[in-house]
């Protein structure tokens, strides 16, 4: 198994709370290896079983293969279903009414319909394959169709992915993948250096699978990753990004990042993160910059926050190493402008990994403004409105989540101290729909048209009186009703109309205050 002492080299003190053997081997899934006649039959969707059955009825072999079999054995619901067969691509296409075949590797997409919810599902069916050399460490130079299942299993990356399942429950496991599942360990099929020289992305995939399943990495496999880590930079940015995202979205992204750093992968993916290693912070922080960012994303994962929030939590202090300065006055470290610098670095990292522009904009905005938190006794509603405007209403709560994760990442126990709750309340207050005449299905211009009069205070009194009516009965907020009422109000003596207008305005202000008090009570603030 992955040697924990070796894994901790260089970070024993700072990262010991993450990298203890028990942390890596915690039993997130209660896994046992057993014959799968019952579990496989019950877990495999009807449409998947039907694709396998169709191939068999036409005289071909058909096995579930790869990650779906592994997931069935560990008790997870597979997201994707893959079948391998001795049928050639043209024979697969001829066996089904709805397929597509647009690659050089024999994989045919079979489109099926889920009879339970009438959604379409694509099952990938691939012939047994024999692969030539991988001269570019990305893809085989040549692919030929194999005659035996064993041919296909030998080319697989890891033993736990080289298990074939013939329905209803016969397993072919020539590389002892079930034993590795029981041991919760990841090792390659055959020589690890050969596997990684074929496709360097497999090194990052090993880390990703480890954190998704809470498995360890076999020591020989881990050593081979460390020796070949530099080849990860030869991979397409999009492929690295996709594996990186799955690490970030796993239940243990901080463990994945530690493993990536220890194995030498991280410096070829996001070297800026490593710059925080050993960078001490000010007295408000218990950890160096690197560990603080790890703890921040750890909390984001515990809260199951979305990708944008997790990335922002990870990168929020990425600008600190570049901006750290010693203050003789404060006798402490300062990081002035790290939010601005951090946003630029975050944009650079995300561009390198080919993230979509929209997501990059969201993350860099959250990194840029994560320092909004200040004294709630002095902050004004106008300042809060500016923050909402800068971040956008649709992302301001992501910003609050990043701030909460940031606080936990410092080592502080409370997620929602009073000041943070107060800020939540103030954002709610400025984002609510205000009680104003703008809510009405009539405006001053229309009243001027109806009454054929000149602008003046009388129009304002009419609008406030109409607003009071609508607040009492929202059903009255129709153009027909309000136009009729506007004419009746206009006909009143001016003093009476002024009195009604002022009374309505006071009623509106009381309603506003009741709304604000309700918001503050909900957040337990005054």
Overview of this protein structure:
By secondary structure, the protein is of the alpha+beta class. It has 3 domains: 32-183, Beta Polymerase, domain 2 (2-Layer Sandwich), CATH 3.30.460.10; 270-431, Hypothetical protein af1432, CATH 1.10.3210; 437-522, no CATH class. Helices cover 53% and strands 9% of the residues. The protein contains 27 helices and 13 strands. Strands 3-4-5-2-1-8-9 form a 7-stranded mixed β-sheet. A hairpin with a 4-residue loop joins strand 12 (325-327) and strand 13 (332-334). Helix 19 packs antiparallel against helix 20. The longest helix has 29 residues, at 494-522. The protein is extended, with a radius of gyration of 31 Å. The model is unreliable at 1-42 (pLDDT under 50).
């Amino acid at each position: 198994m992955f040697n924990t002492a070796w894994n901790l080299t260089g970070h024993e003190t700072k990262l010991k709370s993450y990298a203890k053997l028990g942390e890596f081997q915690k039993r997130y899934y209660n896994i046992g290896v057993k014959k799968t006649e019952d579990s496989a039959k019950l877990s495999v969707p009807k449409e998947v079983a039907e694709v396998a059955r169709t191939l068999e009825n036409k005289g071909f072999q058909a096995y579930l293969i790869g990650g779906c079999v592994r997931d069935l054995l560990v008790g997870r619901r597979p997201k994707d279903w893959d079948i391998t067969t001795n049928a050639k691509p043209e024979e697969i296409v001829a066996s089904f009414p709805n397929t597509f075949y647009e690659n050089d590797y024999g994989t045919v997409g079979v489109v099926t319909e889920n009879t339970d919810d009438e959604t379409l599902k694509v099952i990938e069916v691939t012939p047994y394959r024999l692969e030539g050399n991988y001269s570019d460490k990305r893809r085989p130079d040549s692919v030929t169709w194999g005659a035996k299942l064993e041919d296909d299993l030998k080319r697989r990356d890891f033993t736990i992915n080289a298990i074939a399942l013939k329905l209803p429950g016969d397993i072919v496991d020539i590389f002892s993948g079930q034993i590795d599942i029981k041991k919760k360990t990841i090792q390659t099929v055959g020589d690890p250096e050969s596997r990684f020289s074929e496709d360097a992305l497999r090194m990052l995939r090993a880390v990703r699978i480890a954190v998704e399943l809470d498995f360890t990495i076999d020591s020989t496999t881990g050593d081979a990753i460390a020796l070949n880590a530099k080849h990860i930079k030869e991979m397409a940015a999009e492929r690295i990004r996709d594996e990186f995202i799955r690490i970030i979205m796993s239940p243990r992204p901080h463990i994945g990042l530690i493993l990536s750093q220890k194995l030498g992968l991280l410096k070829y993916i996001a070297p800026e993160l490593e710059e925080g290693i050993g960078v001490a912070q000010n007295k408000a922080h218990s950890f160096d910059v690197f560990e603080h960012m790890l703890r921040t994303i750890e909390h984001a994962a515990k809260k199951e926050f979305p990708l944008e929030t997790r990335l922002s939590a990870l990168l929020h202090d990425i600008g600190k190493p570049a901006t750290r300065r010693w203050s003789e006055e404060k006798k402490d470290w300062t990081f002035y402008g790290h939010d601005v610098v951090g946003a630029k670095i975050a944009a650079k990292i995300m561009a390198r990994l080919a993230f979509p522009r929209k997501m990059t904009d969201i993350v860099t905005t959250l990194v840029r403004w994560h320092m909004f938190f200040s004294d709630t006794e002095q902050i004004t509603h106008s300042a809060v409105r500016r923050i909402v405007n800068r971040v956008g209403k649709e992302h301001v709560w992501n910003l609050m989540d990043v701030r909460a994760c940031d606080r936990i990442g410092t080592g502080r126990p409370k997620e929602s101290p009073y000041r943070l709750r107060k800020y939540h309340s103030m954002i709610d207050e400025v984002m609510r729909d205000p009680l104003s005449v703008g809510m009405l299905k009539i405006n001053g211009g229309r009243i001027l048209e109806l009454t054929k009069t000149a602008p003046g205070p009388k129009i304002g009194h009419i609008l406030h009186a109409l607003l009071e009516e609508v607040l009492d009965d929202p059903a009255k907020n129709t153009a027909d009703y309000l136009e009729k009422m506007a004419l009746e109000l206009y006909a009143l003596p001016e003093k009476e109309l002024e009195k009604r207008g002022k009374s309505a305005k006071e009623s509106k202000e009381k309603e506003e205050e009741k709304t604000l008090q309700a918001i503050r009570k909900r957040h337990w603030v005054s």
